[in-house]
Amino acid sequence: MKKNVTLAMGNGGEENNALIREVFYEAFGNEILNKSEDAAVLEVPNKKIALSTDSFTVSPLFFPSSNIGKLSICGTCNDLSMMGAKPKYLTVGMIIEEGFGFDDLKKIVESMKRELEINGAMIVSGDTKVMPKGTIDKIIINTTGVGEVLQEGISSNAITQDDVILVSRDIGAHGATIFASREGIELESELKSDCTSLFPTVKALIDGGVKITALRDATRGGVSAVLNEWAKQSKVCVEVNEDDIPVSDEVKGICEMLGFEPAALANEGTFLIALDKKEVDKALEILKTFHQNATMIGKISDKYIGKVVLHSEWGTKRFLESPTGELLPRIC
Amino acid sequence: MKKNVTLAMGNGGEENNALIREVFYEAFGNEILNKSEDAAVLEVPNKKIALSTDSFTVSPLFFPSSNIGKLSICGTCNDLSMMGAKPKYLTVGMIIEEGFGFDDLKKIVESMKRELEINGAMIVSGDTKVMPKGTIDKIIINTTGVGEVLQEGISSNAITQDDVILVSRDIGAHGATIFASREGIELESELKSDCTSLFPTVKALIDGGVKITALRDATRGGVSAVLNEWAKQSKVCVEVNEDDIPVSDEVKGICEMLGFEPAALANEGTFLIALDKKEVDKALEILKTFHQNATMIGKISDKYIGKVVLHSEWGTKRFLESPTGELLPRIC
């Protein structure tokens, strides 16, 4: 096999088949994928499934704790998990620039394989395109996933004043890490992306009998975007205590250096939960087994419908707006 | 709304939401999509579903009879149809270059909408990324589809010596059209892409009681790639009469000019069927209501297992190999 991806490897013929067999089937092979049909035929466990898609364009491709491959599996599996679903079947669309190195491609694919195992999911169908040099920057990966809904009714449109808001860990690590990596900022700290699969945490909550109102991972747009969407979609006011939002010293440092707001930074393994006040203790006990700094950050009211209010430690308050402008392109 | 896509429209915040609402929801909006959850929750009609993904990188974006938007719906819906499935739910991943024009984006989205209607399918989940100028050439679209399996057991691994091979129409139109468009070859002819949704034809075959062994649309790699895959996957010899393969004069002209083989050119609305000899008359009667030049092109034997033999009108024979080398990058 060659050392780099060639245009011919996207031709639908011999070289394309060789790439698919030697790299993708080698890592992802299973009874369904190996049938090499135009579409995978799947037995779904019940009649309610979750379906989600995401394209990954992150730059750089490799960054502290993770890479585009791991991210591409976490991203889609997490979106399924956020609907209370167990990730089952994934498709993968690889779009690769001519000349891309096989060593990097294999590292990416190996990371995907490991992350699929964590989710108990498998790749059942795929597509590989190769684009001429200069028409795409290195590699883009699309993943689409089918999940089995374990807990029905989780919805961003269902939050009421009986609910409070929890966060699963300290925020902003992914955004800060990508920014530091891209700009070549050398950090002596432990800053690394939070990129991780959230299904194990969600499963623990469901298995623990926690009744969840809404779940959302705070990816592009960060915690600000999620809270604003929830406020609008559920027609409620979200009130958050700024001081209660956990932010690591490393992320604070990057934010102060660059004038970013931690709540606007992207995360790839951090999520928000809305649930009834009565469920808080049980939920936090479970969340803390995954991250010690999981905590409650806010409550729901009817003060400013569709808005997010941030209370400072000084007793002042302001609206936390959904992010605007270009923060960090190619964050995920 | 601005006239061009900006980086901020991929930020996960305000501008991103505005783009999604004003362009994508405007065209694709439905009860499921409008819920704006992390994943769509779907009721599947039975426990057997088909799942397929494809990324579309075609250049140019607009070409005779079609564009990347129509192609992105046809491509995935056709892959589902080729497994005997009715296209039901699609996801769409848009990856757009900063500065891409809104007029073109809207034309693309409108074409997608029309083609979804033909298939009776809907977009239930999506993702939009914007990449900085120069890091991607204009736009790439990924679509992934879930279909309801109408006829079980259709498989490229199931072809036997009782089967014969039919083609649904004249071949190579898409490949020839893209090549002519890209090179600026002015044709006074009627050459246009065959890009079309095949579900109506497949449904007519199934409704007509035709028992199908295998179906495959002859996209990248053309008829040569499909026949070679079938020969290998089903461990049979495919014997084809070269003269029986319908090729239009326009496609013949392009092929002679450029030294291409029509059977290696891509199609986007042309498929091969393997079925029992006894089913031929019924199948051709139905196929001809869609394309008058649908016809039988070959049979199955055990002469050269895993190979495709092409018989010429002069009585000579040669192996038809799976395409190698770079034919036409970004054909689909």
What's the number of domains of chain A? 2
Q: Strand count, sense and closure of the main sheet of chain A?
A: 7 strands, mixed
Q: What is the subunit arrangement here?
A: homodimer
Strand line-up in the sheet with most strands of chain A: 9-11-8-12-10-13-14
Class based on secondary structure composition and strand pairing of chain A: alpha+beta
- What fold name goes in the CATH topology slot of the largest domain in chain A? Phosphoribosyl-aminoimidazole Synthetase, Chain A, domain 2
- Number of contiguous helices of chain A: 8
The CATH architecture classification of the largest domain in chain A is: Alpha-Beta Complex
End-to-end Cα distance of chain A, whole Å, is 30 Å
Biggest interface found: A-B, 91 and 91 residues
CATH class descriptor name of the largest domain in chain A:
Alpha Beta
The rounded Rg of chain A comes to: 21 Å
Helix content of chain A: 25-40%
Order of helices and strands of chain A: HEEEEHEHEEEHHEHEHEHEEE
Number of strands of chain A: 14
Write the layout of secondary structure elements.
Two copies of one chain form a homodimer.
Chain A: H1 14-28, E1 40-43, E2 48-56, E3 62-63, E4 66-67, H2 68-81, E5 85-97, H3 102-119, E6 122-131, E7 139-149, E8 163-167, H4 173-183, H5 199-207, E9 214-217, H6 222-234, E10 237-241, H7 249-258, E11 271-276, H8 280-290, E12 295-301, E13 308-311, E14 317-319
Parallel strand pairs in A: 5-6, 10-13
Antiparallel strand pairs in A: 2-7, 3-4, 5-7, 8-11, 8-12, 9-11, 10-12, 13-14
